[in-house]
Amino acid sequence: MFDSIIQKDKELLIFLNNLGSEQWDSFWLIITNQFNWTPLFLFIIYLIFKSFGWKKGGFIIVSLIILVAFSDQFVNLIKDSMERLRPNNDPEIQHLLRHLKNPQSFSFISGHATTSTFFSIFIIFLLREKYKYIYLILFFPLLFAYSRLYLGVHFPLDISLGILTGILLANGYYFLFKKIVKKLFV
What is the DSSP letter of 108? Predict the structure, then answer.
């Protein structure tokens, strides 16, 4: 059964990846680069300081830095434990994919999907009572994660389970965050 799931995962990636076209390649290369999202991150930082002030806002920013660092290391631990080849390195399907990037690290789970979802859900938890449109931030992890399929560097399961992991981590992290904030700022 597991082999069947993996095979379907590969087939779905091949289908999705081959929907791409040269006219959209540069767009998805821009989307996949986290540094190109800097305006969004700066806007979030602005909203945090506006909503919580300098002291609590500064604590939240440090918490976000820890969140990203933890998520990155957690994903690397999983990748190094699972050792699933990236699609662009999988000899069975690499010739069937459009290649725009060729990372050499392992594939499962997607760090882009995990960390962007973790970050976005945590931000929603923080700001949902102050900004009703904060839920629009969910476009960030969706686009960011899809870019990895478009580029052929992750399988759909890598993305799906990365998103699920990000949701679970955000819930746990927010629970701990609230407890710490209650002790420090009340």
Answer: S
Nearest to 127, CA basis, from 140, 117, 137, 116: 137
Domain membership flag for residue 6: no
Range 84-89 contact pairs with CB under 8 angstroms and sequence separation of 24 or more = 84/108, 84/155, 84/158, 86/153, 86/154, 87/10, 87/13, 87/17, 87/152, 87/153, 87/154, 87/155, 88/152, 88/153
Confirm whether 51 is domain-assigned. yes
**123: containing domain:** 26-185
Query: Residue 101 falls within a domain, yes or no?
Result: yes
Q: Is there a contact between 60 and 130 (Cβ–Cβ < 8 Å)?
A: no
What digits encode the pLDDT tens for the residues 9-20? 999 999 999 988
pLDDT digits (tens, 9 = 90+) for 105-144: 888 999 999 999 999 999 999 999 999 999 999 999 999 9
In a domain, 9, yes or no: no
pLDDT at 186 over 70: no
Using omega within 30 degrees of 0 as the cis cutoff, is the peptide bond preceding 123 cis?
A: no
CA angle 71, 166, 102 (to 5 degrees): 65
Domain count along the chain? 1
